[in-house]
Write a sequence for this structure.
């Protein structure tokens, strides 16, 4: 049964630290800061889907938006997903990056990217998600980062 994210007992800081570890724990400090920055960017973007979801910059609403982060699902493809926030035990670095992002900071290497993913190959596809809402901006370790396109602006 899927977790009800609306009733998670974690503070926003704890949830963000768990998400950082889950989504980018093996990507080094820059990779974790980059992923966390996408969450901040989504909360700060002044238009489109994430603007409506964040309702004025609420990071928790961004994290809990259904279907956005694999780590926020306890099942993927009908099978248990062990790589989820409930199974994470954040370390000091994850809290430090969470605090940094919660203070309004972002990692300049990702610009205003709103999307990221690990393509499990050497090159980043030009667009992600597949609907063309993001265009490739940078790659940091295993993750590709995508800035919003006009298609996102219409979302």
């Amino acid at each position: 049964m899927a977790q009800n994210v609306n009733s998670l007992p974690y503070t926003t800081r704890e949830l963000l630290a768990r998400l950082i570890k889950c989504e980018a724990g093996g990507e080094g400090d820059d990779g974790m800061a980059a992923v966390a920055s996408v969450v901040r960017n989504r909360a700060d973007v002044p238009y489109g889907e994430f603007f409506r979801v964040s309702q004025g910059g609420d990071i928790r609403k961004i994290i809990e938006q259904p279907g956005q982060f694999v780590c926020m699902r306890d099942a993927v493809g009908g099978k248990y997903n062990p790589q989820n926030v409930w199974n994470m035990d954040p370390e000091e670095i994850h809290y430090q990056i969470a605090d940094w992002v919660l203070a309004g900071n972002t990692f300049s290497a990702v610009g205003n990217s709103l999307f990221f993913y690990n393509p499990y190959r050497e090159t980043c596809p030009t667009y992600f998600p597949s609907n063309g809402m993001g265009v490739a901006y940078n790659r940091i370790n295993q993750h590709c980062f995508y800035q919003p396109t006009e298609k996102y602006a219409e979302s």
Remarks:
- The first strand starts at residue 75 and ends at 76.
- Residues 28-44 form the longest helix (17 residues).
- The two ends are 30 Å apart (CA to CA).
- The CA atoms of residues 62 and 68 lie 8 Å apart.
